[in-house]
Design brief:
The chain contains 2 helices and 17 strands. It is mostly beta strands.
């Protein structure tokens, strides 16, 4: 699929086109909607795999249901039939380049009865892995950068507990000027090589909020570091390095959100497994 213009929604504000951090162009905001009415906020991004582009977000963003028990998340029992995405483009105005975010619509079903979804889910664990992908033809005129783009100069860093991490999303719909994502600082809170609950996920320690679901997560090393598989000091390098780690999907629930402040990150391998598994999703209207 491709995005369609949502003619009923105005364009978002403009910002100067030159920005210092390319990772800020990875995430973009989405609003699950029914019949054109927005019912929630979230985040998504593109991911490249074997020459193809895929839109990545959470299962609960496209279904409006909690993965744990399939219960509806909206207080009005609304189920999304589309996503409204704020997509960045370059425009010229008075001889200067600006970024403008244009709302675009994406139907989540190929039929008018909302029975045939466009997304794919995990081939083994289904909705227990809160990740979906949508095969997508990326718009050449947009400024979106895939999360694993070679242009980001990412490094295969060794991940470990306590390592710095950043979640790039839209907490409660907030943005960092225009529609740039908020960078929420975090640290890895579990052994990233170990699958929690036998699922491809690990935990981060951070005060994230609603609206960041579906956000890309990056880990970072600064100073003197070595790529995965190399040792210090022989393989060491100076500076800053980043690695794409996965997709954020919410917090571990507790009666008080401040008791734990632990977030769930689905590993990059989970995205690849969904893409390669090619398992079609099940309509939320049938669950």
């Amino acid at each position: 699929p491709t995005f369609n213009v949502e003619s009923s929604i105005g364009e978002d504000s403009m910002k100067p086109a030159r920005i210092e951090e390319q990772l800020s162009q990875v995430a973009f905001s989405i609003a699950p909607a029914f019949a054109g009415k927005e019912i929630a906020v979230g985040t998504c991004f593109f991911y490249n795999h074997q020459g193809r582009s895929f839109l990545v977000t959470n299962w609960h963003n496209v279904t409006g249901r909690r993965p744990s028990d399939c219960s509806l998340m909206s207080k009005n029992a609304a189920i999304p039939d589309s996503l409204i995405a704020r997509v960045p483009y370059t425009i010229l105005k008075d001889g200067q380049s600006f970024i403008q975010w244009k709302p675009k619509g994406l139907r989540l079903y190929t039929d008018s009865d909302n029975q045939v979804p466009i997304w794919m889910e995990h081939p083994v664990h289904g909705r227990s892995v809160d990740v979906v992908v949508i095969p997508f033809k990326e718009e050449e005129t947009s400024l979106i950068i895939p999360a694993n783009s070679q242009n980001l100069n990412l490094v295969r860093l060794k991940m470990y507990p306590g390592m710095d991490a950043f979640v790039l999303g839209y907490p409660r719909g907030l943005s960092a000027g225009g529609r740039f994502p908020i960078w929420k600082r975090a640290s890895i809170a579990s052994e990233p090589d170990i699958d929690i609950d036998n699922l491809p996920k690990f935990l981060i320690d951070t005060a994230t909020r609603e609206g960041m679901s579906g956000a890309p997560v990056y880990v970072q090393e600064s100073g003197f570091w070595a790529p995965e598989g190399m040792k210090l000091p022989e393989g060491g390098r100076f500076g800053r390095a980043q690695r794409f780690a996965g997709v954020y999907s919410g917090r571990i629930l507790a009666e008080d959100h401040f008791l734990a402040q632990l977030g769930i990150v689905w590993k990059e391998q989970a995205i690849v497994e969904v893409i390669e598994g090619k398992k079609k999703g099940i309509s939320s209207f049938l669950l």
